[in-house]
Write a structure and sequence with these properties.
single chain, alpha+beta, Lipocalin, 8-stranded antiparallel β-barrel, 46% strand
Length: 141
């Protein structure tokens, strides 16, 4: 009986460790990230149990002129959520959701993945994920 209680206790401990470490990994993606061209910065934070990212800095502020919703074309891009509803994929340090591309006004399936402590790769995909294009962002200190 004592052995069974000990085994059950260890199993519960392992499950709790797995749960808390997956939450810690999600926390690592939170923060402010700069695009490689230095034109913008995006802040990743928690939103409704997922990760989302808003434009928080633009070298050259501009409007959302390519947005398919005509009523939004006059809004400033600063503050727009471009990374949406990112949830863990099951792969370590990777999330899947939607990515809004202000360059063409389209929303694509997207992935973010931590490739290092201060590097976050973002990919936008079309054709069900067959063709993906991305870039690696650097954490802003």
């Amino acid at each position: 009986m004592r052995k069974r209680v000990l085994t059950t206790g260890l199993a519960v401990g392992c499950v709790l460790t797995a749960i808390f470490s997956s939450q810690a990994q999600a926390g690592e993606a939170k923060g402010t990230w700069a695009r490689p061209n230095g034109a913008s910065q995006i802040r990743i934070s928690e939103c409704g149990g997922a990760l989302c990212g808003k434009l928080v800095w633009l070298r050259e502020p501009r409007k959302d002129i390519k947005n398919p919703d005509i009523s939004k074309r006059d809004r400033p891009l600063l503050g727009v959520q471009i990374v949406r509803s990112m949830k863990p994929t099951g792969k370590q340090d990777q999330w899947k959701g939607k990515v809004y591309n202000a360059e063409d006004g389209k929303t694509h399936t997207g992935f973010i993945a931590l490739t290092a402590a201060n590097k976050l790769k973002l990919e936008g995909c079309v054709m069900g994920g067959l063709i993906c294009k991305g870039e690696t962002w650097t954490r802003v200190k």
